[in-house]
Amino acid sequence: MTKSKGLLIILSGPSGVGKGTICRSLCRENDTIVCATSLTTRTPRRGEQDGVDYFFVDEKKFCELKDQGSFLEWAEVHGNLYATLTGEVERLRQKECDVILEIDVQGAAQVRRSTDEGICIFLLPPNMEELWQRIEGRGTDKPEAMQERFRNARRELMEVWQYDYVVINNTVSEAVNDIKSIIMAEKCRVERNKQFLKSFVGKGDGH
Amino acid sequence: MTKSKGLLIILSGPSGVGKGTICRSLCRENDTIVCATSLTTRTPRRGEQDGVDYFFVDEKKFCELKDQGSFLEWAEVHGNLYATLTGEVERLRQKECDVILEIDVQGAAQVRRSTDEGICIFLLPPNMEELWQRIEGRGTDKPEAMQERFRNARRELMEVWQYDYVVINNTVSEAVNDIKSIIMAEKCRVERNKQFLKSFVGKGDGH
Fold it and tell me: How close A206 gets to chain B, by Cα (Å)?
């Protein structure tokens, strides 16, 4: 509508649902959608780059930043620490970029507590069998770790009721299209265009 | 997401903004979006067909139907009566069609009073000069009638605050795309997928 601060989109869902793939695809296809790079203490997986996939830091540095109040959210998942830098997100939104946070359900809950500006999207697998296969197919975990990941995923599904939108990760392109539509629609919301509408309507009272 | 009742979309906006063009274009491009045919007592314009553009009826028939409670909304605009048949809308929604009502702001207000199921979209002209040109360009009215139409349009703009979404009719294709995104996004709303999500999540409490 008019030039304004970018949206804050929270993309979450159970472990293994494919949040990362969807997020990367969205950002690759759209110059104005950016994934805020998270901070983590976990070991980089093969091919992951520091500052691109994550900011990889040690626990000492992580705790320092946490104590400085630099995080929009932080969480421990499977023994590793993850966080989103508030300043990084604000910097991108001020540049009129829509910032997408790809975070687990714990992190999403924290963001919801710290701001009501987020648009919360829950990514669902097409079915539970598919989710199991994805967790298995990742091939980075031992059988017991996979079992735990799957049990966690089942619990995480219960969080869907706290979200605004639900998108099924049937195919990447379908899910990406749904999210693009959600972003476009949210930009058309009357409540997001108050300033522009007030000047257009002239004497609108804006209630 | 799952097969379910179609959406009810209310497309409104000031007189002359181009609601009809957008509505026809949407329905032409999408098999599942249908415009509910309205009832009117006004004289058909050149090229308009009964049962396609409108159901053209006389005032006696109109009042009969009104007294039977058959209308979702009705209104008098520039001396003519218009109405939307509740049964017609329900019939289409049950067939999983998204029903779009192209109605003036008075009619939209009435629909909002009779149901909270409608998604309200306000169509804006790119600017007021453009709106005047469109009213003039229509060429069906006398100068005084055009002046009145324009004054009404200015008043009608104030209604934008009652709507969920605002779409600018810059070009037909842009406006149509925005509305298609709104429809797609609305179908992803958690609150619209409660039944499906309850069965997916299993023991979800659905609050």
Answer: 7
Provide the β-strand partners of residue A50: A54
CATH of domain A8-36+97-200: 3.40.50.300
Nearest residue, CB atoms, A185 vs list B163, B181, B200? B181
Residue A74, both tokens: 């932080």
CA B189-B165-A31 angle, 5° bins: 75
User: pLDDT tens digits, residue range A92-127?
Assistant: 999 999 999 998 898 899 999 988 899 999 999 998
Find residue B124's DSSP bridge partners.
B168
CB contact under 8 A, A158 and B203: yes
CB < 8 Å to B201, chain A: 157-158, 160
Cβ contact B185–A190 (<8 Å):
no
DSSP letter for each residue of A128-172: HHHHHHHHHHH--S-HHHHHHHHHHHHHHHGGGGG-SEEEE-SSH
Is residue B156 pLDDT above 50, yes or no?
yes
Q: What is the ipTM of this complex?
A: 0.86
Question: What are the respective helix, strand and coil percentages of chain B, to the nearest 5?
Answer: 45, 20, 30
- In this prediction the pTM is 0.86
Of the ranges B23-37, B133-147, B164-178, which one carries the lowest mean pLDDT score?
A: B133-147
- If you average pLDDT over each of A76-90, B103-117, B147-161, B185-199, which comes out highest? B185-199
Chain B positions touching A186 (Cβ under 8 A) are 185
